[in-house]
């Protein structure tokens, strides 16, 4: 993101909250089995929606080395800490990040990051594994349902663990997924990017806008966002389908040494900023990012 300052709910049949995302529908505040929810849909309930089952696999040859499935009752402090405060975060963003359970919490087997507008001010959360978990190379993936709307900027990304010593962009940055909300061609579109220092200046390379097939939007369903990162390249995939790759082999790209060191993971929802622009009268609050799981394979 080019940031310079870096009780399960049971269904009617007793199935835990993690299962209903794939096998249940939500109608108002009641979890209804699919067969019943199908009847509700016939009568036109706009709130009823079935989510796609989680069928993602890492593919052959990968071993799980770390994961957070968010199956507990609270955010696991052995995995996650927070960036706190406001001040724009180098991008003229509007939100203040907090560690309050009103902005981030675990519910129904997933991490929820909630962006709130109150009295003209915005709060949200930015969670990170800095100082707790880090990795050099591997497959880093997360299954997420994204927020939407003008000025909403969710991201799943990584930065080098040496940021405190060398600063940004010398620490390196890998944006696994960014979305800038705002309707067609925005709420259905993601970007993957890397940032590094090149002879004292910021450099970056990234994917073009990668769009879902119409009429789909990322807030409607869960998707798996992943990178495959090794000593020569980083490959971006959406739901297991590659859409971009960037070379990091220092024999070819001698200024990309940042990508041969440990990185930590960040999850956040920003509000406003230079890239997405600010929220407008059409932007709905609160906005939610639902993270089903985060996994690392090597």
Could you explain the architecture of this structure?
The chain has 298 residues and is mostly beta strands. Helices cover 7% and strands 40% of the residues. It contains three helices and 20 strands. The chain has helices at 17-23, 34-42, 163-166; strands spanning 24-27, 30-33, 64-68, 81-83, 95-97, 104-107, 110-118, 121-124, 126-128, 138-145, 152-160, 173-178, 189-198, 201-206, 210-211, 223-229, 233-238, 241-247, 263-271, 287-297. The strands form three sheets. Strands 3, 5, 6, 7, 8, 10, 16, 17, 18 and 20 form a ten-stranded mixed β-sheet that branches. Strand 1 (24-27) and strand 2 form a beta hairpin. It is globular and about 50 Å long. The two termini are 25 Å apart. The model is unreliable at 4-48 (pLDDT under 50).
Key descriptive features of the protein:
298 residues; mainly beta; ten-stranded mixed sheet; 3 helices; 20 strands
List the helices and strands and how they pair.
Elements: H1 17-23, E1 24-27, E2 30-33, H2 34-42, E3 64-68, E4 81-83, E5 95-97, E6 104-107, E7 110-118, E8 121-124, E9 126-128, E10 138-145, E11 152-160, H3 163-166, E12 173-178, E13 189-198, E14 201-206, E15 210-211, E16 223-229, E17 233-238, E18 241-247, E19 263-271, E20 287-297
Parallel strand pairs: 5-8
Antiparallel strand pairs: 1-2, 3-20, 4-9, 6-7, 7-8, 7-20, 9-19, 10-16, 10-20, 11-12, 11-19, 12-13, 13-14, 13-15, 16-17, 17-18
